[in-house]
């Protein structure tokens, strides 16, 4: 095992960088995580520009992030939206579903309906941040900064993104298989982060086996067995599974000094009207292969629980209900995992993941992004690239196909800001 370089585990710094009030991001060379590196250039519609600060990168070595848990404010739900069976946006909770506790040994057949009652979302369509942006426009007053005259900031957030993108950041120090590409653009003082599909992930998507395609359906079928459309109705497993439909929560929170506004898809809520307010009433549903050997249990703890924890911890969803299924897609048992207890559950696992490493890495990546992304311009994209066993690097792309903030969003945000100020 290698040792951390000059890492002081007692240091209580909350960010990879030293920030001097009013001076923006300085002294970044003092930071051990940021190091000179060969600047990775990527192809785009135009030639990438040289990085003005010289070549820099961010280490993903987990040893560097084993410090005190950073401040993570309790996430607050500021709104929600729905996508219908044709993927149309609605600024309401019409797609909310209610969890119905199944009986002890349910025997759900997850293969039922795959051939004849399944409408699959077209996952070659890249929606980027569009649904979140639609929600922002419909809810300007909820997320606008009050100090509009002093700054050009339009939103009360440093970052706007999908929860799923943050999940990828949280798990990066432990990921050994799949890299990522995250595009970042600054517009009116807020950084928007949107994923770009990697070549490897596109290849995987285009070459899925029939078995894999079918297994992707199983998770949605499990939702249909356990969720009702109305608070007083029951689940209807005879219906059609349509994966265009979604209910998404929008939450606001803060990680150290990063104010975050993000959205995540929520499976269902507790049907008890006295359940705590959202997001505490939400339930995440998962399916997983049944665990028969100590090796399978260890892998489940080391890999799957990391992803489950990261995904639900971020928006403050307190529990995951897992359906364990056999090889034929029949659910044989159910288990509830409380997010706040997962870190205790894994403590006996040798060399296991640590929540603090996940959160500190995410925090330092966001600091790195704030430091790198300097030009406030929706046609400039800073593309952050990561491959396992490498550092995070970036390249800059002007007027390229990576640009992702739609014209309708820029125009709406610009005109309503001007009308507020005049
Ligand atoms: O187009 C894209 N590249 C992306 C679109 C990337 C990531 C997300 N999205 C958006 C979609 O608009 C969707 O409504 O995903 C939304 C959900 O966002 P999220 O909550 O931030 O994503 P994540 O936490 O990764 O996944 C949550 C659930 C998944 O449930 P499980 O239990 O399997 O984790 O959202 C579904 C899936 O049911 N999901 C997606 N739905 C639509 N498009 C996608 C996706 N790309 N990925 C996961
Ligand atoms: Ca789920």
From TrEMBL:
<dbReference type="GO" id="GO:0034353">
    <property type="term" value="F:mRNA 5'-diphosphatase activity"/>
</dbReference>
<dbReference type="InterPro" id="IPR039039">
    <property type="entry name" value="RAI1-like_fam"/>
</dbReference>
<keyword id="KW-0694">RNA-binding</keyword>
<dbReference type="GO" id="GO:0110155">
    <property type="term" value="P:NAD-cap decapping"/>
</dbReference>
<dbReference type="Pfam" id="PF08652">
    <property type="entry name" value="RAI1"/>
</dbReference>
<keyword id="KW-0540">Nuclease</keyword>
<dbReference type="GO" id="GO:0005829">
    <property type="term" value="C:cytosol"/>
</dbReference>
<dbReference type="GO" id="GO:0046872">
    <property type="term" value="F:metal ion binding"/>
</dbReference>
<dbReference type="GO" id="GO:0003723">
    <property type="term" value="F:RNA binding"/>
</dbReference>
<keyword id="KW-0539">Nucleus</keyword>
<keyword id="KW-0479">Metal-binding</keyword>
<protein>
    <recommendedName>
        <fullName>Decapping nuclease</fullName>
        <ecNumber>3.6.1.-</ecNumber>
    </recommendedName>
</protein>
<feature type="compositionally biased region" description="Basic and acidic residues">
    <location>
        <begin position="17"/>
        <end position="28"/>
    </location>
</feature>
<keyword id="KW-0378">Hydrolase</keyword>
<dbReference type="GO" id="GO:0005634">
    <property type="term" value="C:nucleus"/>
</dbReference>
<dbReference type="InterPro" id="IPR013961">
    <property type="entry name" value="RAI1"/>
</dbReference>
<keyword id="KW-0547">Nucleotide-binding</keyword>
<feature type="region of interest" description="Disordered">
    <location>
        <begin position="1"/>
        <end position="57"/>
    </location>
</feature>
<dbReference type="GO" id="GO:0000956">
    <property type="term" value="P:nuclear-transcribed mRNA catabolic process"/>
</dbReference>
<feature type="compositionally biased region" description="Basic residues">
    <location>
        <begin position="29"/>
        <end position="41"/>
    </location>
</feature>
<comment type="function">
    <text>Decapping enzyme for NAD-capped RNAs: specifically hydrolyzes the nicotinamide adenine dinucleotide (NAD) cap from a subset of RNAs by removing the entire NAD moiety from the 5'-end of an NAD-capped RNA.</text>
</comment>
<keyword id="KW-0460">Magnesium</keyword>
<feature type="domain" description="RAI1-like">
    <location>
        <begin position="73"/>
        <end position="409"/>
    </location>
</feature>
<dbReference type="GO" id="GO:0000166">
    <property type="term" value="F:nucleotide binding"/>
</dbReference>
<dbReference type="GO" id="GO:0004518">
    <property type="term" value="F:nuclease activity"/>
</dbReference>
<comment type="similarity">
    <text>Belongs to the DXO/Dom3Z family.</text>
</comment>
